[in-house]
Amino acid sequence: MDVIIHKIHQLTPSIRAFELISANGSDLPAFDAGSHIDVHLKNGLTRQYSLSNCCSEQHRYVIGVLHDENSRGGSRCIHQDYREGDHLNIGTPRNLFEIHSKTQKAVLFAGGIGITPILSMAYRLKHQQIPFELHYFVRSHEMIAFYGNLTEHFPEQIHFHIQNQSETQCEMSKVLEEVAPDRHLYVCGPAGFMQFVMDSAQQAGWSDEQLHQEHFVAPQIDQSQNEAFTIEVLGSDRKIEVSAHQTATQALLEHGFDVPVSCEQGICGTCITRVVSGTPDHRDVFMTDEEHALNDQFTPCCSRAKSKILVIDLA
Ligand code: FES
User: Fold this and answer.
1) What CATH number should be reported for the domain whose range is 229-313?
2) How far is Cα 270 from Cα 278, in angstroms, rounded to an integer?
């Protein structure tokens, strides 16, 4: 889909909001709170960014992008190489972080750039008159993104937490004290922050069904023990060696098999591939534990094999 960058807003020293409108003047496809879009960048990379505006709006999408110092090329490109008026190629919105239909009360946790899907959720919950509180954790005042939107639209729900870690732990415990079956928790932010929120909620008695999280960056995985394995593609007599230093998608590509990829870190599910036999070593955060246990599909962008041979179906 061809869109135009209508406006760029510098929200914090490192976060910019990009307001995107249709290139042909028509409405954009509808989306739900928690959705993200694929952005196909001019440097060839595809990155996912959450939509942060209210899902009742169809004249624009708003994404927030952190200029990450450890950027693998995506956020640097969009910050440095795009200006207002430039065209951008994007995918239609997809939602991996929906508001659960049984949510009657909600607590939203955002850490840093994780505010982007959480803001869209806040608009949605307010529109549906579902009571909620929004806790936004940042390291300093100047790092608060969307400050004007938050204070204008959610003056009673927003709680800013600008503090050190021990104070954060104490305040989070208080928020999580109230456990009720119809109260759902949504969290987005850095991996460590999300893990801490999820662990704290579980310790406080929240059930897995009440806990929802959105990953921006996959947790770090130790690759030092990686071993080579072989892939056989169903219907082909080729044996593809995946060395310890490459991903399955890289090896497949080298042998002329193209697997669609997007995030390349096990977050988005774009590359999911059927496994016919063998045991995958699942390293994604996209599939559930139950789906992993079935071992009938895997994410070749990051996952590997526990068995010597993995037979996959690319049809
Ligand atoms: S490309 Fe996103 S999970 Fe593999």
Assistant:
1) 3.10.20.30
2) 21
pLDDT for position 166: 58
Question: What pLDDT does 75 receive?
Answer: 86
Alpha carbon of 185 to ligand 1 centroid (Å): 25
Q: Say whether pTM exceeds 0.85.
A: no
The domain over range 105-214 is classified in CATH as 3.40.50.80: yes
Question: With a 6 A CB cut-off, is 270 part of the ligand 1 pocket?
Answer: yes
211 vs 49: CA distance, rounded Å = 21
Could you state, in order of their start, the residue ranges of all structural domains in the chain? 2-95, 105-214, 229-313
CB-based burial, 66-79: b 16+ in 10 Å, e otherwise: bbeeebeebbbbbb
- 154-163, pLDDT tens digit by residue? 999 999 988 7
CB 30 within 8 A of CB 90: no
* φ and ψ at residue 185, rounded to 5 degrees: -115, 135
Candidate from 36, 47, 214, 262 with most ligand 1 atoms within 8 A of CB, to mutate: 262
Please, are residues 157 and 132 in contact by the beta-carbon 8 Å criterion?
A: yes
DSSP H helices, the chain, are 74-81, 115-127, 147-153, 165-176, 191-203, 248-254, 289-294
Q: Which single residue is written with the structure tokens 């239609």?
A: 92
User: 266 CB under 6 A from ligand 1?
Assistant: yes
Domain 2-95 has CATH 2.40.30.10: yes
- With a 6 Å cutoff on the Cβ, whether 45 touches ligand 1 is no
273-307 pLDDT, tens digit per residue, is: 999 999 999 999 888 888 999 999 999 999 999 99
Q: Please name the residue whose Cα sits nearest to atom 3 of ligand 1.
A: 266
Q: Determine if ligand 1 sits within 6 Å of the CB of residue 11.
A: no
Summarised one tens digit per residue, pLDDT across range 48-65 is 899 999 999 999 999 999
